[in-house]
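A sample copied in:

***
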Amino acid sequence: MASTLQAAPAVRRTESPQAADVANPTDEVSDVTVPAIDPQEMDEWLESVDDLLHRYGPEALSQLLTQLYSRAQAQNVPVVPALTTPYVNTIPPEAEHPFPGDRDIERRLRSIIRWNAMAMVVRGNQNGSGVGGHISTFASSAVLVEVGFNHFFHAPTADHTGDMVYFQGHSSPGMYARAFVEGRLTEENLNNFRRELPRGQGLSSYPHPWLMPDFWQFPTVSMGLGPICSIYHARFLRYVQHRNLLETSKSRVWSFIGDGEIDEPETLGAISMASREKLDNLTWVVNCNLQRLDGPVRSNGKIIQELEGIFRGAGWNVIKIVWGSEWDALFEADEKGLLAKALAEVVDGQFQKYSVESGEFIRKDFFGRHPELLKLVENLTDEQIRNMRRGGHDALKVYNGLRAAVEFKGAPTVVLAHTIKGFGLGSEAEGKNTAHNTKGLAEASLLAMRDRFELPFTDEQAKSAIFYRPPADSPEMKYLHDHRKKLGGYLPARTPTKDRLVIPDVATFVETMSDAGKDRSTTGVLGTILRVLMRDKNIGKRIVPIIPDEARTFGMEGLFQTYGIYSSKGQLYTPVDAGSAMSYKESTTGQVLMEGINEAGAMASFVAAGTAYANIGLNMVPFYTYYSMFGFQRVGDLIWLAADSRCKGFLCGGTSGRTTLNGEGLQHEDGHSQLIASTVPNLLAYDPAYGYELAVIVQDGLRRMYAEGEDILYYLSVYNESYQMPDAMPKGVETGIVKGLYPLDPAVPAKKRATRPQLLGSGPILRDVIRAQKILAEKYGVEADVWSVTSYNELKRDAQATARWNRLHPDQKPKASYLEQTLAGLKGPFISSSDNVQLVAEQIRPYMPGQYIVLGTDGFGRSDTRVTLRRHFEIDAECVVYTTLVALSREGQFDAKKLPQVLKDLGVDPDKIDPAIA
């Protein structure tokens, strides 16, 4: 080989603009001239690479190339490593393993499952119900998931915690069709696809554990959430393993994703974490059918190449399954590489065009671009060209891709499989922009599909879209059951553990709250409760504190040194605060999950921990404490997913209140999370003012979720304002705390209470309400009572449920809700004030027995002192006093003519701007 590069005439790049755009969409055709390497010398370099690969293997060659790259960088050569490979299969034919099963039987099974998936949607729309359904997504991904079912997806067994499979939401008919063939679902179930009422008789539209708690594990149809949850789920399995709680090393997390779904920010937002954590227990399979819901994903580009570059750049192992076996002979015969070059030049929009065109069109438009390409296919008929499959429809190619993914160590793997949307559904759906919205097929298409997949139906049976299950003693059924038996059982399936945790009693919690004379915040109290729980011999190891990089804000940094921050790498450095009591301590057995500035990732960890009882049979208790404003507002979709997942645990808004977090400005100040929480059916939301209230709520939540097995979760508004709290909890208030309302002075006789105003307060604003009670008495001679409202949401739900029961049972004695029982005989007026928007407290208006006025924090927040902010929003003691006197004046109990002077006396400006629009 020549030792130096020979000089050569300057040359100009000659690629066409189209080719340049395909290779790198940001490149432009350049006029810059560069010296060319002599072709013979280039061949010698390439032959050397081949020789090194043959003699030393791929790892050694990779080491050499890395060193060459480093040397070039050291010489200031602007080398950019290629992040994409040619537009061909990653695994060449000579490296493929033989298919381990019977391909003919598997093809027949896939055909039957394809048919049943289509039939349930078509039948569901033939009856005029209009309930919809999607048939094209599963049609494109059938081979991908069926190869997984037959050879990879392991169910939980005594020595295997099972694989976690996040199926594409729109492919749900395919999962139901397989379960039907397996005998797990009935024909009646399939006939009731998307008939979700009454629950349990039909099949839910998409994967919904709430509706099908024995079947689905993971909600995935809110696209983007399944992928991010799968990443943190894989990491959570490592967390459990490293903490010696459960052996999870055999479990793999699979996530099936559409290429259009990649555009959701949550899909790609955390992929670097997966490679950083070396999550080789995670495999993503991207169904690259080149279509979104309405059209091409990258009509003028190449989504598979784009994704390869993104994932390689993020440190993932990438496997491309682009072309089926029919292409192998063409690639082998193409000595000049023209075929691969031509395939790289064709954009996705044109590939979609080929999926709906004839073989004659493909021959002319694609192979006709070069005489030598035409020669490659001169012995193929147009029909053979038309039927040359994309790689995702070839079981052999898919098997080898998934096998390579499972065997790869040291990084997560993404499999990019080229498919056609609506594959096999005929001219009405296959490859069409309308494929996603196709709900039915004409009789001709049903017959064509029957013939294409060689199904044993008569014409009449095909036209009526019958459901079909082979005879129990058929080779197909024996094969199907044998393969699932080898893999531990059937999936998807959800099996909650029957184990129950031993929960500390209320006294254990409340005793930690007694700290007479010391100011405390409810966020600080939450930290104390966490430490009490983590020390508990029964439940301590099951607590999972999850914090998105704000532990010091919440006063929880004390957990670092005592319990450690989980890190798969341990701690490879000496922290700057080493030796201090609050030192930053990372450990492979750490208990705290610190997720960085990443609320979505923290929520995904919360879901993984909160559903562990059902997915790996281990009760775990997550406490996710976060900057309140970045909770529901930012990750509300993930919270809804958690509810659908029957997730358990505590979501804690650690900086709650529109006026309590007072120095951060309008984008940080939260006064609406309690309102949004009210929209989640199985989420119990509380707004406690005192430490003992919080303790009672947490203990009751632990009892309900982990001792009694209720599928609920909690939202807790906790605040960063410190103030003196009562020395002890009043007797007998536990029920009221949990139900949502109790009087601060239970000893006041009901008769006396009935004749005076009732003031309702929540969170830190309860203190202003108490101060208002004092001003009313001392300055205006008005006696009033104060109530702590811990949950307007729970009061409303109970009252609403009671009202519904009464409405539907007119022949029975009416029931009274807790709110109605508690306020029975009281005339009010009732004045409510809190650090939430008014609609939170407005929820109970229909059930109040007298005049009811609500004060709240409607409008954008501001940065100022708490005193100033509470006056701005008109929720402070003086505003509560004035509002009370207004209410009394309306009932003739206070002279309305005095109100202007009251405003002056209290310093309330009646002409300032309305805070709701300020």
Notes: The first helix runs from residue 17 to 23. The chain is about 40% helix and 10% strand. The longest strand covers residues 282-288. The two ends are 77 Å apart (CA to CA).
